[in-house]
DNA sequence: GTTCTAAATGAGAACGATTGTCAATCTCAC
DNA sequence: GTGAGATTGACAATCGTTCTCATTTAGAAC
């Protein structure tokens, strides 16, 4: 039945809605700022869920691929995720307390496109994030760890 | 003995010049584009050096800390290094063949500073890199691995 | 040149994040 | 309700990186 649907979604295998994936999605949505998969996993376990770590990774990967989650590499090399509904944007992150501010940067977007085009690059994506000390941490006067 | 010397150099331990560190520095300088520590290590071994992997990591860490090397996280989470003498700049990297083009971006620099300042952030640093397919790889028409 | 001390090294174990494997479970179209 | 196959969880495997520690070595003092 409805054989033309094949045309609509020929490549993507059917994706089922499972409690686990929903749990991950919600946990992510409830979290401010970026979290690592590991952190999200323990958070879920603390909340009584029995999701496995591998499942959390898979769910986050799926969310990120679908554009429902934002992902970036922390300076330590850990992958961080964040629920993301407002389309493409970048972040201003406090390296002391982790505070994250979403920033949109049209000028940077077009700059990236232009630079890529100038050099003949196609399918350009870009990584633009600003790390610093937020006002509060700056005021603390404490030097950051590093 | 000479107790007042403690006053002269209390914190920085003496740094010795060793063949290994020099070898790493040179290998890095001879390399175009970004290399991973692992790649640099095998390259050194192929060249006959006996440096250990841990030493390569230590040397790269030192170079990066001293500002003599550039470092960034690849999307795969690997740390990449590059000799860097031309001050602050960013990169346009082909995700298929690894070709790297240095790009300077005054507009982005000032934008980052401004955005940080707007939100009260201090000591701002930023990560700005553009990934794409270089002209050649685009022409190949082959879809990238991912 | 010889001696001495602490920095640096190398080998490999340890570590932490992530991915793969696979039998068991659960969703959903029928 | 039933069945096919997507998804799961537990854990092993992998990969990049760091740590440990006995040994070597650079560089200052003699």
TrEMBL record, chains A, B:
Entry annotated with the keyword Iron: yes
Classification via InterPro entries: FUR, Fur_C, WH-like_DNA-bd_sf, WH_DNA-bd_sf
Cellular component, GO annotation: cytosol
Cofactor: Zn(2+); Mn(2+); Fe(2+)
Region (Disordered) location: 1-20
Family to which the UniProt record says this protein belongs: Belongs to the Fur family.
Stretches assigned to coiled coil: none
Keyword annotations of the record: Cytoplasm, DNA-binding, Iron, Metal-binding, Repressor, Transcription, Transcription regulation, Zinc
One of the GO BP terms on file: regulation of secondary metabolite biosynthetic process
GO molecular function, a single term: transcription cis-regulatory region binding
Binding sites annotated in the UniProt record for Fe cation: 88, 109, 126
Taxonomic superkingdom: Bacteria
Cellular location(s): Cytoplasm
Entry annotated with the keyword Cytoplasm: yes
Cofactor note: Binds 1 zinc ion per subunit.
Secretion signal, residue range per the UniProt entry: none
Main location: cytoplasm
Residue positions binding Zn(2+): 94, 97, 134, 137
Oligomeric and partner information: Homodimer.
A Pfam family annotated for this UniProt entry: FUR
Name used for this protein in its record: Transcriptional repressor
């Amino acid at each position: 039945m409805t054989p033309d649907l094949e045309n609509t979604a020929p490549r993507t295998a059917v994706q089922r809605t499972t409690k686990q994936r929903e749990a991950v999605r919600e946990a992510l949505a409830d979290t401010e700022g970026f979290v690592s998969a590991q952190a999200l996993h323990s958070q879920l376990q603390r909340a009584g869920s029995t999701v496995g770590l591998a499942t959390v990774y898979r769910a986050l990967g799926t969310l990120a691929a679908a554009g429902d989650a934002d992902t970036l590499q922390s300076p330590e090399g850990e992958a961080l995720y964040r629920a993301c509904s407002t389309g493409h944007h970048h972040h201003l992150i406090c390296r002391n307390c982790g505070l994250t501010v979403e920033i949109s940067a049209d000028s940077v977007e077009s700059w990236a496109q232009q630079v890529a085009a100038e050099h003949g690059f196609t399918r350009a994506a870009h990584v633009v994030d600003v790390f610093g000390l937020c006002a509060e941490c700056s005021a603390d006067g404490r030097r950051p760890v590093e």
